[in-house]
Amino acid sequence: MRNAARPGAQALPLNHVIGDMAKIMSHRIAMDHPRFFGFIPSPVDENSFLGSMLTTMYNVGAGSWYQSSGASTVEDSLIKWFAEQAGLPPSSGGIFVSGGSVANLTAVVTARDAKLQFEQRPKAVIYISEQTHSSMAKGIVVAGFHRNQIRRVQCDSSYRIKPSSLRQQIESDRKNGLIPFMIAATCGLTNTGGIDDLNALADIAESENLWLHVDGAYGASILLSKTHKHCADGIVRADSLTWDAHKWLFQVYDCGLVLVRDKRNLIESFATGASYIRDADEASSEKVNFWNRGIEMSRPARGMKLWFTLQRLGLDKVSDMIDHGVDLAEFAELVFRGFENWEILSPAQLAILNFRYVPPISKPPSEGTDFDQFCDKINAEISRLAVERNIAAPLTTRITKVLNLRMCTVSPQLSRDQLLEVIKSLDSIAKEVSASFVKKRILKI
Amino acid sequence: MRNAARPGAQALPLNHVIGDMAKIMSHRIAMDHPRFFGFIPSPVDENSFLGSMLTTMYNVGAGSWYQSSGASTVEDSLIKWFAEQAGLPPSSGGIFVSGGSVANLTAVVTARDAKLQFEQRPKAVIYISEQTHSSMAKGIVVAGFHRNQIRRVQCDSSYRIKPSSLRQQIESDRKNGLIPFMIAATCGLTNTGGIDDLNALADIAESENLWLHVDGAYGASILLSKTHKHCADGIVRADSLTWDAHKWLFQVYDCGLVLVRDKRNLIESFATGASYIRDADEASSEKVNFWNRGIEMSRPARGMKLWFTLQRLGLDKVSDMIDHGVDLAEFAELVFRGFENWEILSPAQLAILNFRYVPPISKPPSEGTDFDQFCDKINAEISRLAVERNIAAPLTTRITKVLNLRMCTVSPQLSRDQLLEVIKSLDSIAKEVSASFVKKRILKI
């Protein structure tokens, strides 16, 4: 495949190249498969394919009003609508970006410039937790901070930032002459689907004059669920918010969004012109130049496929599609709790469930390994076999010291019945693996 | 349009939404029109549309090998091939990004981490010129530097960084206890198509131990021209290189590339894992995880449409398509030089020409305005009318103190004959505008 990738002097026939493309692209994980439960899956609605195709065919350069007044108007209007869903005020604004990583980076740069004098930066500190997505730390380092300026605050038993620990840490940092300036909370932890206590963190941010960023790359979409919107209570108090549509809004890659409470902060950080007058114009004008609100100059109109999808589906349907994901994870939890030898490590939250199989033996049969390590091996093998046999892909992660299986059930195409079949199969595999492991160990003695 | 952008509760019919999309997208500049000469146009080859559409339909998450071994292999292989075209060694590597802005930012972060201790950053300085693309300064500031750490080195009469001035500036900065660490040169200035003297700058970079970045977002594509490849002599000495395929390689947005001489530098800056052992594995492995080489975690396989296009066209054709652009600008220069009252402000370079109309009068007819200001108004009006009458879009810029018209002639669909017709029309408009301006001024007296 490596050699075939290199272009030759002569043209190749269309069917040849399309055939090669098919072969190349077959080597992948189907992130959009209903039974792919790993990472955050990407179950794409067919309208996004069509919207994306049309956007591509028009191929507007959506960096400036002059190039793209139509798409820029619609993207800006859609951004305002998203901001309203989060409860942000009319001063808010944002930009469609390639995804959560760039959104988080954009937020860090904006917070940095809004909260710190340049000279203060070396003493600045940012608060995240062990559960915060790795793109947050990457964005902080890209924006010029040192890794040791990142504080990983202790979590509670639900893997959420512990407000009391955060307060203590801030106090201790201030005592040491450091300058706390930003809290990065999460709405929809990748590991567990959990949501930091946004109101508690907002209280702290308010009293300590810190920037509150909420990484809702995955979970902010819950705001479009009529039933579960309340889960994100407190998100209204964010100074900036990351929200990916290629996660739980059924879009093809790439379609991310960063919102800020006051769009002037974006313009102050990213407008390239030196003229303050023009920048002020920029904030008040309806004629948005997106290249003054983010990192990119040339940019595709990434929001248009999302606009197309929302128009085509209607919000009632979108709400149902999101609710379906929440329901599936809760259903899975119920089923596992009814089965023997399965342990729930983190209950269903925002369509994510963590669980593991614990074999029905009182202690491990072989020496030199403790019980949890033994279980780790069994659960890793369950995941491997489920993938190998094409049953489903629940991948593994660690939220505590033990390894667990994890399901993110956001596909609108998966039914409860199908999910029940998957869980039954996992249970069979678990019994098989467990028996085989116990036997192997015993035979070894 | 703003209200129509907001999603409603109910689904809208397909034809309705497609119709709205058409209306929205009609408000734009056709960056791909053969007679759009402004900015850097985006003349898209039809194979890129198809390649992009297929990439979208497969919708791989090309961040990691596990998600996307096929596309990752091909992208990595294509990156190596591009690095070879620039003469970079086998140690080189890179990543497809959304465009020049992110590529330049990626290069700044990589250079920063490769050349500076963290403590040295406040004293670090970077050298660019007045002609350097604005995304460079933006990337520097995003990466945590202050605007006053940017040195805008004086240019020669061809608007290229003056090596002697650069040497003096470096010497002076060192004397002041500052730490020079990076030169950002350009291959294909947006304004003039000019190329900095890469060998002279590389000599300085070498002797001063600085990182040499080359922003070839526009001009690096000349490396694929058999005839004009030599224009980019010295690019082989770059430590990092930006190269956009949605500019002069006929791709839809977005398709940019950043290359570095030693891919380990990318991994050291962007790999999220803490384990050095794993990072070392990452550099030697054929199993590339692109999320360890750039800012993004989730990323679409942006390089696949370019791969598709190159396979379909073949390199001989691509070379001809690039040469055609160079030829058109040289032809335009010849024609303008043959016409009366037109002045060439910067000769044809890499398919870009700068020129202006100078009315045949010895001095301005009205008081309170000098001759150049008078010419500025005339040339601005020529551009405006050419766009209004749908003849062509040569936009204006300033490379000296006077305003000039600028043509970037990269469209393979434009013939010499058609271009001649455009120039004749511009000449007619110029005469008309000039006569009207002279008359208005005279009547005022």
TrEMBL record, chains A, B:
Co-factor(s): pyridoxal 5'-phosphate
N6-(pyridoxal phosphate)lysine, modified sites: 247
GO BP annotations listed: amino acid metabolic process; carboxylic acid metabolic process
Gene3D superfamilies assigned: 3.90.1150.170, Type I PLP-dependent aspartate aminotransferase-like (Major domain)
Bilayer-spanning residue ranges: none
One Pfam family of this chain: Pyridoxal_deC
Entry similarity comment: Belongs to the group II decarboxylase family.
Name under which the protein is recorded: Aminotransferase class V domain-containing protein
Organism the protein comes from: Trichoderma harzianum CBS 226.95
Lineage summary: Eukaryota, Fungi, Dikarya, Ascomycota, Pezizomycotina
